[in-house]
Amino acid sequence: MSNGTLRLFSVLAIRAPFAAVEQAWLRSHGDPLTIDWKPTSVIEKNIADGATADAVIVTKEAMDRLIDQRVVAADSRVELVDSPLGLAMLPDAVAPDISSVASFTRALLAAKSVAYSLGGASGIYFQALLKQLGIEEAINARATTIAEGFTAAQLLEGTADIAVQQISELLMVKGIKVIGPLPPGAQKVLSFSGGVFNRAARPEAAAALLNFLREKEAMQAFADYGLTARN
Predict the structure, then answer these.
(1) Rounded to the nearest 5°, which phi and psi values hold at 124?
(2) Which residue among 7, 14, 100, 132 sits deepest, i.e. has the most Cβ atoms within 10 Å of its Cβ?
(3) Measured in whole angstroms, how far is the alpha carbon of residue 12 from the centre of its chain?
(4) How many CB atoms lie within 10 A of CB 128?
(5) Model confidence over 19-72: pLDDT tens digits?
(6) SS3 at position 128
(7) Residue 207, class by beta-carbon neighbours within 10 Å (0-12 exposed, 13-18 middle, 19+ buried)?
(8) What does pTM read for this prediction?
């Protein structure tokens, strides 16, 4: 890694809009980025195993833990975006009604297979939601689960007819359609925060990057993928 490169660990939820964000960053600051895209749970495990970088973007709950563990500098914390969960299907599929918890539950039960991620924050929540709805056994008997990555890819592979994930992650996969967010009562808006490692090689540049992600151009790119700025 050259002296001019910043290393970032980041959740997959912001990967789709980040290409535009990174280009804007390079134009204004010039520091190239090396980005390791993983689910929050994997990032935390890697950090526990000794991995480090200049900055990290994870769920706000994980950021709380990293600060408590003194891995991340508390005064470097930047609140970034909120990300709702949604469902996706193939473009020619007939979209079911998912406007209420009851109709959403019926849609899941009617699916041949529901795809979700075991390692991502959305998938961890979805597993708890299935249990809460009392349909865990019925759905998991024919679910398509992946360790990490983009669940909507399973639609294209024909292994699932409904994919559940953060809307921004669903939109990473071309050739699918998002049929809507989860309804009130089932929805879980995930919130993401950034911070600078206490052992960062370039802490000032890392802080500048996180602050740049709050600027208008970056936030517009995030908004294009269903991500909203955190207050």
Answers:
(1) -65, -45
(2) 14
(3) 4
(4) 12
(5) 889 999 999 988 999 999 998 999 999 999 999 999 999 999 999 999 999 999
(6) helix
(7) buried
(8) 0.82
